[in-house]
Amino acid sequence: MDAPSRIGDRSTSDVVVRLRTQEGRDEWIYCHAGILIEKSKYFADRLSDNWPTCQILDSRNCVEVYCQELDFNHHVNVLRLLYVVLDGSFDDLWNGVKNALGILQVGIQLGCPQIVTACVKYLEAIPWEESEEEEILRIVPDMGSEAEPILARLQPVNLSAIRGIFISTLRFAMSSPPSLMNDLKSSAQEQLEYMVTEDDDTPLLIADEDIKSEVKDCVGRLFSRFNKLLEEFLCESAELVGEAGTITLFQSYFADFSWVCQLLSKLEIMRVFVNSWVDASDKILTTTKPLIDSVMTSDEESLAFKIDGELWQSLESTFVSIILALPSANQAEILTEWLENEHIRYPDLTEAFEVWCYRSKVANRRLALLGGSHSTL
């Protein structure tokens, strides 16, 4: 059996690929016609009998390739990859998003379908930094349909998915979860405001009557729980009402009310809060007076048993990276289920949720240059 051909092996080479730049860089790379013809349409055309001229260099056929200095190394990498079996088991070949984008551009220019497919799959699978997202949006849209799958996670989400995640977030943001979930709840509240706020981008969701009705129902349930709490406290002694745990509970409700005011103001249904607050005002005054009069001492809360912190954070980081690498519509499905799960704190997908909200809201603006070829998923 013949030994496999190796790039740069002058003793078996029958083609010289001459890479040249306008700056005068000129490098000869000894290759093999069989591999170039099989894996690159560009080289297949230039080494065919139909090509009018074929230079001879060092007693071999020569194909000249001109490129920019910035892309020189990417061209060399593509030639090397032509000699590699790209079966998905060598992700370390790409050396990150920036290098993979450069290789992808050259692979498309030289008509190398195996390299293009492998590169697209790699870019689809790995997480991106925000700066890398911007680079992808700058480069990929001009690459044609072969590279379109890379943009799947950045596509605008259809209205149904947005409504679903908004309602799930709303219900969680107006619930009364254990105090350990306060950070999750605060994040949910922040993202709800972000979704409906008009800034550089149009709001992610324009609240119609159905959305407003759902918001009103959630506000009603929040006040219903608060009224029930007030009625229970009216039957308790002043000492019990003034306990630290009780005050913390009240602080939680008042923080929710403060946030609800901001949300309702953006949705232009502030009257809902005003009416509910007026109905509860007498009970609030009667119950909170002992809190105002009480003097508390702060004791350090006992630490709950926790699994190894570093291990859990590592797992959560992995979950987030995997989710953010999925198409945006699939992200919405997962996050909707997460927000509706009673075990929402395990894992904490807050980071993935915040990134999804940002990407979804700015998607139309960021992909505006792509025109009608990129419809919502």
TrEMBL record:
Transmembrane segments: none annotated. InterPro entries: At3g05675-like, SKP1/BTB/POZ_sf. Pathway: Protein modification; protein ubiquitination. One of its GO terms (biological process) is protein ubiquitination. Gene3D superfamilies: Potassium Channel Kv1.1, Chain A. It comes from the Eukaryota. PANTHER family: OS07G0668800 PROTEIN, OSJNBA0011J08.25 PROTEIN-RELATED. This is BTB/POZ domain-containing protein. The lineage of its organism: Eukaryota, Viridiplantae, Streptophyta, Embryophyta, Tracheophyta.
